Amino acid sequence: MLIKKTADIRSSQVTSKSLYLDRRKFLAGAATLAGAVAVGGVACVSAAAPEPTQGGQKLPGVVKGQFNTDEKQTPYKDITNYNNFYEFATDKYEPAALAKSLRTRPWTVKVEGMVQKPKTYDIDSLLKLATLEERVYRHRCVEGWSMVIPWVGYSFSKLISQVQPLGSAKYVEFTTLNDPAQMPGVRYRVLDWPYTEGLRLDEANHPLALLTFGLYGEVLPNQDGAPVRIVLPWKYGFKSCKSIVRIRFMDKEPATAWNKAAPNEYGFYSNVNPNVDHPRWSQAKERRIGEFFKRPTLMFNGYRDQVASMYAGMDLKKYY
Ligand code: MTE
Question: Other CB atoms closer than 10 Å to residue 264's CB: what's the count?
Answer without folding.
Answer: 9
